[in-house]
C-alpha cells in the first residue's frame, strides 16, 4: 500500500530547463563574490564541490559539510570570508531568477491531491542547495505553504541522487518502507533509480532528462496532467492493492 509521494522539484513541480537555469544562477552568484575570486574559478570550484557532495557516501557528514570542506580546499577561502555573501545572494538576488522558470497551476493541484489522498508528501529535490534556495524555489512554484512531511536540503541530508541511500534515508526519515513510496521526477538517472530500493516510480515527460544509461524500470510515465489523473483516479503506481 502506498503511503508516501516523493516529488522532485526542478523540472517536475517547477517547470524549467535545468541546465540553462544553472548557468544563469552560477553566473549571478559568481558576480556577487568576484571581489574575492574570479567568476571562472568560483564556478569551477562550485561544480567540483558539488560533485564531491554527489559522490559522498559518509553518513556522518551532511551535504553542507562535504560541500564546505571541498570548496574551502579548492579555493583557500575561509567560510567566514565568503558565506555571508552567499547568504545575502540567496536572500536578495536569487529571487529575481524566478523569471528563468515557469509556474504551472497543475503542480499545486498535484500536491494537494496527494495530500488529500492521505499520502505523506516529500519534496525530494537533490539536496545540493541550501535551504534558502530550495524554499525560494517552492515559492516560485506557489507550493511553499503546503504541509510537506519533509524537504531535503543540503543542511539536513547526508546523501544525494543518484545514490540509492538518499532514497532509503528519506523513507526512514518519514517512517515508511521504500516499497510504500512513489518517486515522481523527470530525470531517468537521478529519480528513477529509486526503483532499485523498491520504490514505485512515475517518470514525468514534460521536461524529461535521460542521458541514456543507466536505464531503470518505470511504473508509469506521462505529463503533469497525466500524473494528476493517476492521483485522482488512484491508478498506475497509486492503485490500491
From TrEMBL:
Pfam family for this entry, one? Hydrolase
Molecular function in Gene Ontology: hydrolase activity
Name the domain of life: Bacteria
Listed A to Z, the keywords are:
Hydrolase
- Does the record carry Lyase as a key word? no
Transport as UniProt keyword? no
Question: InterPro entries, from UniProt?
Answer: HAD-like_sf (IPR036412), HAD-SF_hydro_IA (IPR006439), HAD_sf (IPR023214), S-2-haloacid_dehalogenase (IPR051540)
Entry-linked PANTHER family: HALOACID DEHALOGENASE, TYPE II (AFU_ORTHOLOGUE AFUA_2G07750)-RELATED, HYDROLASE, HALOACID DELAHOGENASE-RELATED
**Mind telling me what this protein is named?**
HAD family hydrolase
* Species assigned in the record: Thermoactinomyces mirandus
Amino acid at each position: 500500500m502506498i503511503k508516501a509521494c516523493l516529488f522532485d522539484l526542478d523540472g517536475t513541480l517547477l517547470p524549467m530547463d535545468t541546465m540553462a537555469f544553472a548557468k544563469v544562477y552560477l553566473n549571478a552568484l559568481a558576480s556577487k563574490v568576484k571581489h574575492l575570486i574570479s567568476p571562472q574559478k568560483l564556478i569551477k570550484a562550485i561544480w567540483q564541490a558539488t560533485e564531491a557532495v554527489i559522490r559522498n557516501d559518509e553518513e556522518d557528514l551532511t551535504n553542507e559539510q562535504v560541500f564546505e570542506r571541498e570548496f574551502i580546499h579548492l579555493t583557500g577561502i575561509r567560510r567566514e570570508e565568503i558565506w555571508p555573501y552567499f547568504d545575502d545572494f540567496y536572500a536578495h538576488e536569487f529571487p529575481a531568477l524566478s523569471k528563468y522558470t515557469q509556474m504551472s497551476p497543475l503542480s499545486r493541484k498535484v500536491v494537494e491531491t496527494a495530500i488529500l489522498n492521505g499520502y505523506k508528501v516529500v519534496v525530494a529535490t537533490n539536496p545540493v542547495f541550501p535551504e534558502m534556495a530550495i524554499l525560494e524555489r517552492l515559492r516560485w512554484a506557489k507550493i511553499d505553504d503546503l504541509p510537506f512531511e519533509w524537504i531535503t536540503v543540503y543542511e539536513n541530508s547526508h546523501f544525494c541522487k543518484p545514490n540509492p541511500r538518499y532514497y532509503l534515508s528519506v523513507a526512514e526519515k518519514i517512517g515508511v518502507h521504500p516499497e510504500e513510496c512513489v518517486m515522481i521526477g523527470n530525470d531517468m538517472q537521478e529519480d528513477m533509480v529509486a526503483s532499485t530500493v523498491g520504490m514505485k516510480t512515475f517518470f514525468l515527460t514534460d521536461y524529461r532528462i535521460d542521458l541514456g544509461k543507466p536505464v531503470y524500470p518505470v511504473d508509469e510515465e506521462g505529463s503533469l496532467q497525466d500524473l494528476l489523473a493517476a492521483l485522482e483516479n488512484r491508478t498506475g503506481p497509486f492503485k490500491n492493492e
